[in-house]
Write a structure and sequence with these properties.
Length: 349
């Protein structure tokens, strides 16, 4: 018998010739795997010691923050520490921060604990805040900022805003703090839905339209005096009722930011409610276009273009916050210097 073996091997193939038994090892063998695993196991005590030191440092920081908040903040209630449900909430916050160590989540957790201390266990708002404490450590700075931005744009109307200058200054503060963290990809918003913080609606509302609905009196196109004279006669010259358009800087508009304010103003000037309604309808049907509003605000609010692009180019325009999202968004927004912090029970009750 001939020992000659002829083989044909395709490109990239492997030819094996053997006159006896052939053993083939693919990759790492069982002995090597055993050695690797045992080597890793030998490192576990050192790794555990490092992790333990990190956790201890985080728990110390958390404890100091909680104590400091309850010592200095007169609005919180120290008696809450006698409530087993509240104690469990604090423990949940501790565990969340010990695992992640995220600074943005840390501050939000402390604020949520402070707010939770004011509530009575068993009430709806207490349950929502409990859940907020559980979810917050799982959110990134992007999700926290997105919740805060949607909350600020869709859920708040500030009475102190009565001019384009005050409107722009306030929103620039929001954008300075939040906009850099806001993402435009679908993933972050799907994650908010998965965490029960929001839903993504089929309908959408642009940033400018949000503002038109919330502060219509800031964005009214000025009308000729005769348009209002037909409705109120010489009362059109009453400076309490009418003023020069804030948006176009020519023509007249009603001297109110919203309908409730105008109704009170009309009543004080003895304009019957039916006529007041017609005046308001005339004004509200002549709001500025997106381009008019952006052009007027751009110089006053440098970040407007970026905010407009991010909002309209992402699911922000479709996002509706749940009670959980409102609680977290409210808490994150309240951390912005000069942002108005209204009681959360206005939105969750």
């Amino acid at each position: 018998m001939s020992d000659r073996q002829d083989q044909k091997v395709a490109a990239g193939g492997t030819a094996i010739q053997s006159l006896g038994d052939t053993t083939i090892y693919n990759g790492v063998g069982s002995d090597e795997i055993k050695a690797i695993v045992e080597g890793l196991a030998d490192q576990l005590p050192r790794m555990a010691a490092v992790a333990s030191a990190i956790v201890e440092e985080r728990l110390k920081s958390f404890k100091e923050e909680v104590i400091g908040r309850f010592d200095k903040d007169g609005s919180v209630k120290g008696a809450a520490f006698e409530d087993p449900d509240f104690i469990e909430v604090v423990a949940e916050a501790q565990r969340g921060y010990a695992r992640t160590g995220k600074a943005d989540a840390h501050k939000t957790l402390i604020d949520l604990i402070a707010e939770r201390s004011k509530q009575t266990s068993g009430e709806r708002i207490a349950h929502v805040l409990n859940e907020a404490v559980s979810v917050t450590p799982r959110l990134t700075s992007s999700e926290l900022s997105e919740l805060a931005l949607v909350f600020a744009i869709k859920s708040i109307r500030l009475g102190a805003i009565n001019s384009l200058e005050s409107f722009a200054a306030y929103h620039q503060l929001l954008f300075d703090d939040l906009l850099g963290d806001v993402e435009t990809g679908q993933g972050t918003y799907n994650y908010l839905v998965a965490q029960r913080c929001a839903s993504i609606s089929m309908g959408e509302i642009s940033l400018i339209e949000c503002w038109r609905r919330t502060y219509p009196g800031l964005f009214m196109v000025g009308l000729d005096r005769s348009r209002y004279h037909e409705l109120v006669g010489d009362a059109v010259d009453n400076a309490n009722l009418f003023t020069t358009s804030l948006l176009t800087r020519e023509g007249l508009q009603v001297n109110a930011v919203d309908k409730n304010t105008f109704d009170a103003l009309a009543a004080a000037n003895r304009i019957e409610s039916e006529r007041a309604g017609k005046i308001w309808d005339q004004a509200i049907n002549n709001l500025g276009s997106d381009n008019q509003i952006i052009s007027r605000l751009s110089a006053l609010c440098p970040s407007l273009a970026d905010a407009h692009t991010k909002w309209n180019g992402s699911p922000l325009k479709n996002l509706d916050l749940t009670a959980l999202g409102l609680a977290i968004g409210h808490t994150r927004m309240s951390q912005i210097p000069a942002a108005v912090s209204a009681d959360i029970s206005i939105w969750i009750n």
